[in-house]
Amino acid sequence: MLTGLIALGIFGTILLVMYASAAAYRVMSPRGTDRVVERLQKWSAPEAVAQMEIMRKDSFSDIPWLNDLLMKVRRFQPLRVLHRQADCRVPLGIFVLATPLLALGALLLAFSMHQTWVFALLMAAVLGTLPYGYLYWLKSQRMAKFESQLPEALELVSRALRAGHAFSVGLKLVGDEAADPIGIEFKRVADEASMGVALPQALQNMTDRLDCVDLRFFVTAVLVQRETGGNLAEIIDSLASLIRKRFELQLKVNALSAEGRFSGIILFCLPLVVGGALYVMNPDYMSTLFTDPMGQNMVMVGSFLMVTGAIVMKRMVAIKV
Questions:
Q1: Could you tell me which residue, 131 or 317, shows the higher pLDDT?
Q2: Would you give the end-to-end CA distance of the chain in angstroms?
């Protein structure tokens, strides 16, 4: 029975790796190529722009029943938002299917190594959360890049306003000239406005797609200016200057907290390095730590304490500006 489960787990893992390899090829292909092709098509066939579909249908999986499940079940709403904010071109269904397969593979691997139930469950929990951790990493990388591009984009909109252009023209200019991810997001706002969506609603849709506080300040300032009036170009310039000053202060804070961060890294890596060195010098002495039940419990408790300490030290040095 156990041999059959192991074989089933290996077969499912191989299928997942093959599908993930094909999806990784699409992910690793540069997005700049897509933008170049899009511009060439736009210049060569301007009439095709008028035939653009107004309604966009989201597809979370190539499997029909899984796609319907992800679209209808409310419990998957935070996961859908995370996938949209990460702008991952791998379908969401891959991450949903990868979670149980990785957890099952971890359980089978732990049982084949004659490990305890606690160790097997811990291993399954760690491997099962890897797909969602990857999505969070993609989201954080994309948001960091978006925030770094935002001041220049706001200054470009401000210069367009001072030159006499409309606000929507400034947004379109950012969408055409700026790099991703801010270029594609501003271009989406300009496209929605040109297809009949109210500009305040298009801006609100952008804040829903992106988890960026500075962007919310920008949208709020624009909406308030449309209600009360004022010099929008000056408001946007002030906001861009404020964001730049906040980035400078954040860099100073990172420099001052560098000692604490490096101390945490050294304290976290020191047990692993010393343990690896002892295992190389005396494998019989260290193997008891992994074969004896008490040693396995000590490894699990030590790992938990190390992860907890790393999280605490990271929160101590993570100062929000």
A1: 131
A2: 56
Contact by Cβ (8 Å): 90, 134: no
- Give the gyration radius of the chain's Cα atoms: 25
**Domain finish residue from 220, 243, 266:** 243
Residue type, 249: L
Whether residue 173 contacts residue 157, with contact meaning beta carbons closer than 8 Å, is answered with yes
Provide DSSP, 64-100. HHHHHHHHH-GGGHHHHHHHHHHT-SS-HHHHHHHHH
Alpha-carbon distances, residue 161 vs 165, 171, 173, 185, 231 (angstroms): 5, 10, 11, 19, 10
Domain that holds residue 66: 2-25+58-128
Q: How far is CA 220 from CA 84, 197, 210, 227, in A?
A: 22, 18, 14, 11
Q: Which two tokens stand for residue 293?
A: 């039940």
Residue 6 and residue 124 in one domain: yes
Q: What confidence tens digit (pLDDT) does each residue in 114-144 have?
A: 777 777 788 888 888 888 888 889 998 999 8
Q: Based on the structure, what is the number of domains in the chain?
A: 3
Query: Of 66, 96, 128, which closes a domain?
Result: 128
Query: How far is it, in rounded angstroms, from Cα 94 to Cα 133?
Result: 14
Q: How confident is the model at residue 22 (pLDDT cuts 50, 70, 90)?
A: low
Average pLDDT (267-284) is 86
Is 69 among the domain residues? yes
